[in-house]
Amino acid sequence: MPYVTIVIRRGGALPELRPRKGTAVQQESPSPARILIIDDSNTIRRSAELYLRQAGYEVLLAEDGFDALVKITDHQPHVIFVDIVMPRLDGYQTCELIKRHPKFSSIPVIMLSSKDGLFDRARGRLAGSDLYITKPFTRDGLLKAVADHLAPRETPKPNS
Fold it and tell me: Fewest Cβ atoms nearer than 10 Å: which of 13, 32, 77, 113?
């Protein structure tokens, strides 16, 4: 399994993400779009995976922010869904790390959370999220969020 080196600089700077030596980084391909789901709940990950795979997307799964950083570095997803409340590295911290990295800052990050308060939404926006969806989400809501954040060439045609 490939690993990522996380270099933390003194003075509170954000970590630098680099692929581990000998790890091939996949180049971005136009289709199918890769979607990363980061959630510590297996039920949420599997539900989102089912909806997205049925719609023709490639789906990557991560249990927490650290696992996600490895997958982002290795697979460069086109859209990222991230839960807020997770162990080790929460969704706000994960989003901020992604958005502060020059190579990954343009990837849309969509917060997924059962928290629906104004403060939670504002904190997500401050962390750099592009959208905030509350759980439980619907299939249509999830697919609309993906379609709205992908370039037109990356959106698969609906399965008949």
Answer: 13
CB-based burial label for 23 (10 Å; 0-12, 13-18, 19+) = middle
Domain ranges (residues) in the chain: 32-150
Q: Give how far Cα 51 sits from Cα of 46, 63, 124, Å.
A: 9, 18, 24
Cα dihedral sign, 24-21-45-154: negative
Q: State the pTM of this model.
A: 0.77
Q: Output the CATH code of domain 32-150.
A: 3.40.50.2300
Assess contact for 39 and 45: CB atoms under 8 A: yes
